[in-house]
Amino acid sequence: MSSETATGYGTQRQAAAKNRTAIIDAAHELFAENPLVPLSDVAKKARVGIGTLYRHFPTRDDLILAAYQHDIDRLSGAAEDALARNTSAKAAFVEWFEMLAGYIRIKHGLGDALHSAAAQQVVDDSWGPASAAVATLLDACVAEGSIAPGHDAADVIMLMSFLWRVPNTGEGVAQGRRLISTVFTGLQSKPEWA
């Protein structure tokens, strides 16, 4: 392969990677608004042709899974960002769980696409990084004294699962904040088993 051909191939691969990222970003945004959005709208928002979208994601489910995986990867890394951005670990904890709730609300709106065997693997694979992010937040909250030591990250995720059950409305957000306050009151006590 000549260097000119290799350069052209490298440029094509970069363009393809850029298109893939643009499609996933557009899908993330549009699926959040409407899980049933037409894929032609995703392609339009990503500024690619529909053929380009289908070359990267042959089925709607393929795109949904890629967007979901991208969101989980982004969310897993967001714990450190939230801690750096907020003045308290407790505020970072609340922000991170509200982001998680938003992702899960989107997931529930995507229906059957996230109930296939491939999807279940993606969901299962997201548990480890999500638990690690929560452990990071718990450690920071313990260090600042807003949470007692000894709480398990998996238990806290289950406890906070109310956030993706409250309605995505002003009233739901207010209810979620009240419930978070109640959770923090409970987490200030050392667990009996610790």
Automatic annotation (TrEMBL):
InterPro entries per record: Homeodomain-like_sf (IPR009057), HTH-type_TetR-like_transc_reg (IPR050109), HTH_TetR (IPR001647), Tet_transcr_reg_TetR-rel_C_sf (IPR036271), TetR_SbtR-like_C (IPR049445)
Keyword Oxidoreductase: no
Residue stretches in coiled coil: none
SUPFAM superfamilies documented for this protein: Homeodomain-like, Tetracyclin repressor-like, C-terminal domain
Keyword Transcription regulation found: yes
Keywords recorded for this protein, A-Z: DNA-binding, Transcription, Transcription regulation
DNA-binding positions: 38-57
Domain HTH tetR-type: 17-75
The protein, known as: TetR/AcrR family transcriptional regulator
Species for this entry: Gryllotalpicola reticulitermitis
